[in-house]
Amino acid sequence: MTIANTKTFEALDLPSPPRAERLKLGMADTMTLTRRDLMIWVRNPAFMFFTFIQPVMFVLLFRYVFGGAIPVHVPGGYVNFLMPGIIAQSAAFASFGTAISLARQLQKGVIDRFRAMPMARSAVLLGRLLADAIRLVVTVLVILGVGYLVGFRFSNGVLAAIVMLIFGVLLGVTICTVSAFVGLAIKDEESVGSFGLVWLFPLTFVSSAFVPVRSMPHWLQVFAANQPVTIVIDEMRSLALGGPLALHAWESLAWMAGIAAVFVLLAVRAYRRAT
Amino acid sequence: MSSPNDAGTWKGPAILVENVHKSFGEVRALSGVNLMVEQGKVLGLLGPNGAGKTTVVKILTTLLKPDSGRVLVEGRDVVRSPAAVRDIIGLAGQSAAIQEDLTGRENLDIMGRLYHLDSETRRRRTNELLERFDLLDAADRPTKGYSGGMQRRLDLALSLVALPKVLFLDEPTTGLDPRSRLGMWEVIRELVAAGTTLLLTTQYLDEADELANQIVVIDHGKVIAAGTSTELKNRVGGDVIQFEVVERSRLGEAAETVKSLSRSEPVIDYEGGSVSLWVGNNGSHALVETVRRLDSLKIHTEGLGVRRPSLDDVFLSLTGHGADEAEGSSPARRRRGSRRHQKENL
Lengths: 275, 346
Known about the structure:
heterodimer, A: 275 residues, mainly alpha, 11 helices, 0% strand, B: 346 residues, alpha/beta, Rossmann fold, Alpha-Beta Plaits, 2 domains, six-stranded mixed beta sheet, five-stranded antiparallel beta sheet
């Protein structure tokens, strides 16, 4: 018979592996999943193309359609004002994919399968974020290339330009942590897609990305001037075009570190609970 | 890290589930489940949708913690040493682990990396598995082009990359066409012959009949029967009357007229146009009566006869409903294949 009641069995006493060993394996798992993620991206030319096409269209749209109507006081005109903003906005929008992909993997049962394997629980999340960071670097460089073609120029030296790009990628990764939480908490691919519009649009458009905050009604300025995306974009603009550098640097870093810390914790918790 | 196969000290059963309870809020998913699977044996876990099969598998594979009770896999406690359990189990089922943009070979390689196998072992094992599961020709094509049967075979191969001692297969053939199902059965039999312990959940009674040494039927979170397929069939005992109705439109009418001969509901197979009815030890009388009643209504039949009960009949008599139905299950979820049965909604 299959029912067990004849004999008692003592469980094996198994020591868990040392912490250093676990950390090493956890890093290996993260790299494996980053690699998997990037392989999928590279294997899908359409997917890669759409990663770039939206930012490029935004550059052209704002440079040539809306730009003429937006007065800014920046050396070199609107295109120089626009590029740091568009890099930040594109980096934030890239996080759409993070939420959708995690929700899909939960829905399909992929994550359950991973959790039944001897791999680090954090690897699914960290692997995705690392892959996002690498994709963001490529995306930002593509946008910058298009920006140069339509007249954008850095005017504050190479080092500041590189730091600006790093800020753009960091902002993107920060927003990806929020998105990861959203994807793991909502768990439904389609809802996640629609919900992304609800928070990503205000966060990026009600900021200094495309227009000076001063041009908005006063009540909106209160939010727009003080929200983290504006603070990071203002810092990026100073880095690209020259200006009071240190003004927003620490504030930006603090915002991004704080948001990432909170949402990584929330995402890890949602990941543990989701099944 | 220890390799999955060097912990050979455990001499007890491969799977031991003792008095496990699990609730989700107000819903009691499992209330006191006991199971035992000896090393190298196959346990078929049967039950309608929502009976608790998936919850059992999730607890055994460390995805859920039991509220109470004890669960050991190869002597490893799923609550106290989940990592040690994960080292020696494999989980496969409905093709979930496959990344369809990648090739079969890449999928296997990534799985090998996640099990921390070195590159030489990964390469060797990938080739072995591709060959064994008849996927070598398709190995370097993206898996989105694979047929349903190929995807299931690859999914199974993925769960075997680290040579698990205990394998969990969650409805491995649900939705497959009959030929692919036979192919999967073949592959599963070979695995078991090589000594892997297997716990298989299925809605297909013939699948459990074909593959399992032991069958456990659960319903409403409880084990309601356990034993070999023959033992279970003997438990039901008695005879089953079965006949085909020539005019399909009169199937319902035919079932209605013989209904009173049994304590249970007649089972109508709409696809095959047949009715079967469990009549206990009353076979010959019921047979005569069936002929009389059908004849008086001028319902023409074919292949009328008495047969021994199948596992389907066992299931019906134990649970009061068919294996493929649960409250609220949609018709699309019902199984395909030639032996489709549907309980009549009279």
